[in-house]
Automatic annotation (TrEMBL):
Its EC number is 2.5.1.18. Belongs to the GST superfamily. Pfam families: GST_N. The keyword Transferase applies. Residues 16-95 form the GST N-terminal domain. Is involved in the conjugation of reduced glutathione to a wide number of exogenous and endogenous hydrophobic electrophiles. This is Glutathione S-transferase. One of its GO terms (biological process) is glutathione metabolic process.
Length: 127
């Protein structure tokens, strides 16, 4: 087996089973999709109807009943920023999601938090 095939197999083994419960227009879901794309993680995408949530979503995120939820090897991770951090930690061998400089990291976290708060307000006003 050549090196490339080996590396591809290792990637699949590390990824395990990855499922994303999401809604196409969600900026919170988009954040997770971008992180998975940056890391090159293959996953199964499950679109949710937010007016008629699936039993799987209610089971995987019983606290908030919201997307996105990342299900990794059967275990749910909720809240987009926490999911992104989890992705960065699990697939730490490639494409770091934050800059290495502490000040730049703080800046990136500030804007992520800013977008988070604005996004929640926007979503509340929409409903
Ligand atoms: N803080 C959450 C926000 C997630 C969120 O607001 N998701 C919305 C879609 S954009 C949702 O699932 N809404 C369904 C509901 O409120 O019942 C995160 O960052 O994941």
């Amino acid at each position: 087996m050549d090196g490339e095939t080996n590396r591809a197999r290792e990637k699949v083994a590390m990824a395990g089973e990855v499922v994303l419960l999401d809604f196409w227009a969600s900026m919170f879901g988009m954040r997770v999709r971008v992180a998975l794309a940056e890391k090159g993680v293959k996953y199964e995408y499950k679109e949710e109807d937010l007016r008629n949530k699936s039993p799987l979503l209610l089971q995987m995120n019983p606290i908030h009943n919201k997307i996105p939820v990342l299900i990794h090897n059967g275990k749910p991770i909720c809240e987009s920023l926490i999911i992104v951090q989890y992705i960065d930690e699990v697939w730490h061998d490639r494409a770091p999601l934050l800059p290495s400089d502490p000040y730049q990291r703080a800046q990136a976290r500030f804007w992520a938090d800013f977008i988070d708060k604005k996004g929640e307000l926007y979503w509340k006003n929409l409903n």
